[in-house]
Amino acid sequence: MSVRRSRVAVAAALLTLLALLPIAAAPVLAKDHASAEQTRILNYWTKERIANAKPRDFVRLANGKFEMAKSSPSRGKPGGGGTGGNNVLGASWTGGGDVLKQTGKVLFTMDSGDYICTGTVIADATNNSRSIVVSAGHCAYDAADGGFARNWTFYPDFDTNGTYTCAQSKYGCWTATSLSVHYGFANSGGFNTQATTHDWSFASIGNGGFTNQLAETAVGAMPKSFSTPAVNSQTFNFGYPAAGKYHGYDLTYCSDQVFLDPLNSNLTLGVDCDMTGGSSGGPWLGSFNSTTGSGVVDSVNSYGYSGVKKEYGPKFNSQTTATFNAATTATQNTIVGNAP
After folding, report:
1. What is the pLDDT of residues 217-241, one digit of tens each?
2. Residue 225 falls inside a structural domain
3. Residues near 331 by beta carbon (within 8 Å), at least 6 away in sequence
4. C-beta separation of 278 from 82 below 8 A
5. Could you tell me if residue 104 is inside a domain?
6. Non-local CB neighbours of 174 within 8 Å, separated by 6+ positions
7. Residue-wise burial string across 279-308, b where 16 or more C-beta atoms lie within 10 A, e elsewhere
8. pLDDT of 323 above 50
């Protein structure tokens, strides 16, 4: 009788162990899958793919319609360099500091091909298992071109040594685990006025880079504000333009006073600037300190006008806050909010 009870007890113990095994193994499998996907994405971005990726920027034509800007051959670096002067229309940023480390190239794939934009690591008070990169909405989603971007990768400090691959970079690269955009952008029916007023995105990125750390640990994070900067306030906007006189791996900046876009019903912000395709998603920094290279992100590069040396960005607001908050907990690509 005791032998039988012993066998029953052993069998019960084995069943309990087998029942628990999937629970214990699940996090490991999920982690392995995430690691495999990260490796796949990083391997995707060969030197040739990065070099051939196209800027994804939009311009408004004389008839009021928007279209994707046509890339023109680059001709080298912009003239001169700067460390923070006012009224700069486009110059190499030579001041170093936080903006150089925390702003980087964004690489991603849509159905129509591989593209580049600009993004910035921003402060995330939740301080959990992810960092957040802000960029333009059209650098993360296009309903007519496959929906959410794929192979989304953040390459900080892209111009340190002029190399292309992540393996040759200073910090390495981080891949997105999810992308978040607002309903007002995703359901705008194309790049139009509604899209411009919601043209932001937030990428959630896990551990990565050469140190397998959060990006905010490896390179830091820029402060943010989801309030609209005042008209006539000074802003510095940054990006990696890759057309015309720009070659795409030189952090470039403009500096001027903020104004409203009257041709867009004053719904978006403008600044004098001649940056070209590739600068989309780059940060607008208020309260900028040229010594430390730090400021407060309060908009991003969104669109321009054909033949006009100005760049425009959305007004951050409560809908931006909602999109950001969703990104801090998202486990999959997310469209936030309802019809505006």
Report:
1. 999 999 999 999 999 999 999 999 9
2. yes
3. 177, 178
4. no
5. yes
6. 131, 133, 153, 154, 156, 205, 206, 208, 209, 215
7. bbbbbbbbebebeebbbbbbbbbbbbbeee
8. yes
The pTM score is 0.87
List, for residues 140-180, the tens digit of each pLDDT value.
999 999 999 999 999 999 875 556 789 989 999 999 999 99
> Which position has the token pair 């070209």?
276
The answer to the question of residue 5 being in a domain is no
Q: How far apart are CA 200 and CA 303, in angstroms?
A: 12
Distance CA 270, CA 303 (A): 9
The answer for residues whose C-beta is within 8 angstroms of residue 40's C-beta and 6 or more apart is none
The confidence score (pLDDT) of residue 248 equals 86
Strand positions, DSSP E, 94-182: 103-110, 113-122, 131-135, 141-142, 147-148, 150-156, 174-182
Count of domains for the chain: 1
Cα 261 from Cα 214, distance rounded (Å): 37
In which domain, by residue range, is 144 found? 47-336
Cβ–Cβ under 8 Å, residues 320 and 247: no
Cα(120)–Cα(40) distance, rounded to whole angstroms?
A: 23
Q: What is the CATH number of the domain that holds 81?
A: 2.40.10.10
